[in-house]
Amino acid sequence: MVEISTGKHSPIAMSLSFVCPGLGQLYLRKIKKSIVIFLVAAMGIALIYINSLPVSNFTDLFHWGVSQGGPNGYLIWKFKSGSQLMFRPHWYFKLSGLVQFVIIWLYGIIDGWMGRRIYKRRKDEGQEGEMARGQGG
Q: Tens of pLDDT along 49-93?
């Protein structure tokens, strides 16, 4: 298979990437890149959400103060020995999730604009066409 690309920018892919990170790459038939961009953006959103717990409304996601989970955090697992595995949300993890999401979102938009749609064809198709033209002349 040979990959052939068009030489034009793609405003459609850029618009799709603006709506959802990775969607423009899916339109350009770059499946692996689309999955990676979507998963990295989803991990950024998950970092923001998890470090905002407990979330009762949308504005809790933008609260940068101390978490309402208490000074000890949230109990994840209690071992038989009595020790505990705790989750303690922090504002800097929320900030890193926001930075991660914004960077990958902008990368997806720019890559959607600069990206070229990939078409695949077999190598032997081109050779057969040349042979047919040579026989007819």
A: 888 877 777 777 777 765 555 556 777 888 989 888 888 788 888
- Specify the pairing of strand 2-5 against strand 74-78: unpaired
Count Cβ atoms below 10 Å from residue 109 Cβ, excluding itself: 19
CA dist 41 and 59 (Å) reads 20
The CA distance from 23 to 13, in Å, is: 7
Confidence at residue 38, expressed as pLDDT on a 0 to 100 scale:
97
Q: What is the pTM of this model?
A: 0.71
Supply the DSSP symbol for 26: H
Both structure tokens of 113:
């604009």
**CA–CA dist 124, 132 (Å, integer):** 12
In angstroms, the Cα distances linking 83 to 23, 38, 70, 71, 129 are 44, 37, 18, 17, 73
Q: What 3-state class would DSSP assign to 37?
A: helix
Question: Please, is 10 exposed, middle or buried when counting C-beta atoms within 10 Å of its C-beta (0-12, 13-18, 19+)?
Answer: buried
3-state secondary structure (DSSP) of residue 21: coil
